[in-house]
Amino acid sequence: MNEGEKMDVYFYTRPGCHLCDEAKAVVDMVAEEFSLTVLERNIEENDEWTEKYGLMIPVVEAAGEMIAYGRADYVSIFMKLKQKVNK
Questions:
Q1: Of 69, 60, 67, nearest to 83 (Cα)?
Q2: Of 56, 59, 75, residue with least CA distance to 67
Q3: Do residues 6 and 36 make contact, with C-beta atoms less than 8 angstroms apart?
Q4: Fewer CB within 10 Å, N or C, the chain?
Q5: Pairwise CA distance, residues 30 & 18, whole Å
Q6: 7 CB contacts (<8 Å, ≥6 apart)?
Q7: Contact 49, 40 (CB under 8 A)
């Protein structure tokens, strides 16, 4: 990535998902570190997303790669996104 260029991070979720609420807070904290744009996607709004991520949510995806799913922790998301940002 070029310096100053923002990376989009996709956060797949659904209403009423307590794991998603926890993961969103973690993703938002990491996004502040790298000036990322977090795009939240409700899987219930798209059949393809529901089929792909329904049993895995929350899912964090960046640069076409799944970064985390299920329980999200700050350190692993931070390290994986750091690698992507520094490319």
A1: 67
A2: 59
A3: yes
A4: C
A5: 19
A6: 1, 34, 36, 37, 62, 63, 81, 84, 85
A7: no
